[in-house]
Amino acid sequence: MRAMPEPLNVALALAAAGVPVLPLRAGKVPLGNCRSCKGNECGGRPHMKSAGPCRCPAPCHAWAAATTDPHVLTSPAWASAWREAAALAYHPGGAGLTVVDLDNAAAVDWARATLPATRTVPTTRGEHWLYLGAMPSSNAVRPGVDVKSLAQYARWLGPGTGLMAPLPAAVRALLVKEEDTNPAPGGGLVSSLPTRVPWSREVATGCRHTEGYVRTGLDRGLALVRARTESGAGSQAFGVARFLAAQHTQCPGPCGLAAAGEEIVSAAVLVGVPESYARRAVTNGLETAVERAA
What does the pLDDT look like over 179-195, one tens digit per residue? Predict the structure, then answer.
């Protein structure tokens, strides 16, 4: 009898404890959607933010595919996913939990000075702080801090140590109140974003990079943000802004990063991120790069 892949063994144990799980491929990202669900053509799963009728048996739709059903986890539709799995993830909100993802030492120091002590799990660069209670998810709520709960997954890195505390008001207060992102009557999203001048050499007179170098990197980053049509666009915007700003820490300036940031904000808003949150994520990303270089 062929042995089950190690991530599946752990997944079954977590599922038995009531924790919804899903496989991750290399790069710590979910498996891609199947042909029927690609581009969300199926309408999405019923419990997603954009509720749809999808009943696909495959692990499609990222966090929304997480399950505690052992028959689903060991089904033929999931078999190839487990063979490809490089890691395991779980849906915190589905287990009634919230994960405060602290991405670096500075974020950990902030949490220790600000948040109630709770169960902690070491990560590659920081820590996960786990609280009892679910809430909306939001990325880049401050530099190096994401809140993962109802509409995100978190990578399983072990049970952690310490007693799990109830979800505190201080964590709930980190989220920016979302603006209306319902479709406008004529289609598309409601947005107050005016048309803005894109980044160009004219606003980057002190940049040491060529226009082609900056424009290529920015365009690739914008494409990454626009690809996040289901979730994670705000976090992606934060990451793109941070990466972009890091390329210019040695420039005499100005490099026109504000103009580049506006393009990132616009890309995030186009895929449903509230403008206030997108702007905050991009601003935090630009500032974090500067702080790391200091």
Answer: 333 344 444 444 444 44
284: Cβ contacts below 8 Å, ≥ 6 apart: 140, 142, 143, 238, 241
Strands 127-132 and 165-166: parallel
Does residue 30 have a pLDDT over 50? Answer: yes
Spatial separation of the C-alpha atoms in residues 102 and 88, rounded to whole Å? 19
Residue spans of beta strands (DSSP E) within 9-152:
21-25, 29-30, 87-90, 97-102, 119-122, 127-132, 138-142, 145-148
Q: Radius of gyration over alpha carbons of the chain, in Å?
A: 20
Distance CA 199, CA 193 (A): 16
Write out pLDDT tens, residues 91-102.
999 999 999 999
How many CB atoms within 10 Å of residue 250? 9
* Total-model pTM: 0.62
Q: Is there a contact between 74 and 98 (Cβ–Cβ < 8 Å)?
A: no
**Confidence bin at 199 (pLDDT 50/70/90):** low
Hey, what are 288's tokens?
């974090």
- Rounded to whole angstroms, what are the CA distances from 205 to 202, 211, 217, 218? 6, 11, 18, 17
